[in-house]
Amino acid sequence: MPLLSATLNRVKPSPTIAMTNLALEMKAAGRDVIGLSAGEPDFDTPDHIKAAAKRAIDDGRTKYTAVDGIPELKQAIRDKFRRENGLDYDATQISVGTGGKQVLFNALTATLDPGDEVIVPAPYWVSYPDMVLLAGGMPVVVECGIESGFKMTPAQLEAAITPKTKWLIFNSPSNPTGAGYTREELKGLTDVLMRHPHVWVMSDDMYEHLVFDGFEFTTPAQVEPGLYDRTLTVNGVSKAYSMTGWRIGYAGGPAELIAGMRKVQSQSTSNPCSISQWAAVEALNGRQDFLDDFRLAFARRRDMVVRMLNAAEGVTCPTPDGAFYVYPSITGCIGKTAPGGTVITDDQTFATALLEQSGVAVVFGAAFGLSPNFRVSYATSDAALTDACTRIQTFCADLR
What we know:
This protein has 400 residues and is of the alpha/beta class. The chain has helices spanning 6-9, 15-28, 47-58, 71-85, 100-111, 127-134, 154-160, 183-194, 220-223, 255-266, 274-285, 290-310, 347-358, 382-397; strands spanning 34-35, 94-97, 117-122, 138-143, 165-171, 200-204, 231-236, 249-252, 325-326, 360-361, 363-364, 374-377. The strands form 3 sheets. Strands 2-8-7-6-5-3-4 form a 7-stranded mixed sheet, with helices on both faces. A 3-stranded antiparallel sheet has the order 9-12-11. A two-stranded parallel ribbon has the order 1-10.
């Protein structure tokens, strides 16, 4: 009898974490490595949020809490959804988990049966398909190429829906591309969904506040109120508030679904960290002015990275609408040979050779379901980005 389950053998470790760990190992060995693989803002958590966590510790708020969130945080989340998205939820419709990833996982675990299908537009966040597999479902990947701005069309969505479809996982702005759906583009998708009442919508809005150039963020249940009763709207404080390590994600959705997610969480992690919950209350209720500073810094970095990568031979880099990623194509590099002798057969060999020869860590596109591309996270300093992009230019120029 094998030790590991057949279910576990269906999934693979996170490639983004694997690349980040490899870069750290090379740094520890004395190599000059610039890591562009981790999706984590380099800004510190704002002081007023840290102060709220310190007050929570001093006030003894260090005990178990309700499984899926303290009432004060649920109220802050309800206020946020109403204020920013026009969505009204009561407390029974709010779930708080240990990061957005747990919230998504809880929902899939609570709802999927063997044979259920989940539509996953690609490029996708690396964890979506594997979470579906772990929950017993089957991911149905829809490739959305550079020609469509990495966005799924209504025709593609219509073609992917079958009687077995349970969920559509929707992410805008996207990890890994930064592509955002306009209100009109999103309305095209929600019109399709309204014709298929058995399909639920899982909207991952984690990068809602990180949008540029006047882009207007909208979420499915906001654009189409008819989807309210079958939409789980997921968000968190990790990215916009630079609180990745605090591990707080949340969602609003139908009470029956939220109750199922609560049951899953009660038998896995139980409550999220009590101190982090109080910090999240302050993040959502407190001053928001620092978000403008974050956005301006990310927009400046985006423009510089896009410009420099487009100057690299064989690379085409679209300009994203939000998040802090770019997803350049390396079509012009395929088939060439690096100075070390490596033939660039795909984006994985490109990323590996780039790391080994130039000391720049990126994530290869196959990890996100669409090749030949690679993902750059520009959530690091301007100096590091300039150095890294210069190295990428040199690496590409040396391909023969």
